[in-house]
Description:
Blueprint: H1 7-10, E1 28-29, E2 46-47, E3 51-55, H2 58-70, H3 76-89, H4 97-121, H5 130-137, E4 142-146, E5 148-151, E6 154-157, H6 159-162, E7 171-180, E8 190-207, E9 212-222
Helix pairs in contact: 3-4, 4-5
Amino acid sequence: CIDRTHPEGCIAERYIAEEAVEFCTEHLSDVSTVGVPSSQKMGVSKPLSGCTVSFVDRDLLNHAHLYVLENTEEVLPYIMEHMIHIKTTYPKFRKRTKWLQDKHNSTFIQWLHFKVQSELNGEEHNGVSENLRWLAAGPSMAVPSYRSYLINCVKFNTKAQDDVRTVQNSGVYLLAHTMQVASAKDKNPIVSNMGFYGVIQEIWDLDYHKFRIPILRCDWVDNTSA
């Protein structure tokens, strides 16, 4: 994501989409991985404000958790295996791109949980890392939320935090290789690069018990059709 410091309030008010792409999870692929860094040279990440802890809606938490999983390099082989599993289980839908992606999004979390547990209980347990074990177990439902956070040496603020400041750090931009659906009946959408401008609404620190992963909950709009 690219921090946009000014552009007229980071298009906060006028161009917020009615249906926000929360966490940029659904139908996004081939973006730079975030998740658990493979290298410790990613830079400093730490909260820059006090936090509030709340129990969030399970569906919303799963949405954020899925984003983390799909952008963690260690999980990618499991994503490929799960897609093969879906195509094998539902052969009539193997060419329905959108249906397959929707099915993956709705079932992958539970599938990965049981898959990793099975590997831990079997002869393959030596191949399961500590990070993967806790990722598959899922985050705590008690979620710390911050107004300001330093992530890999880049400062991010929520929109509420920026509303009382002159310099803004709540605007973000994402270029993603994603599905474009023409209508609700479109069964085979095209895949291409799309740009999304967004505004940070919340900054969560997902607690995976042995480590935490900061994540930005944003409102997004497709800039190509704005």
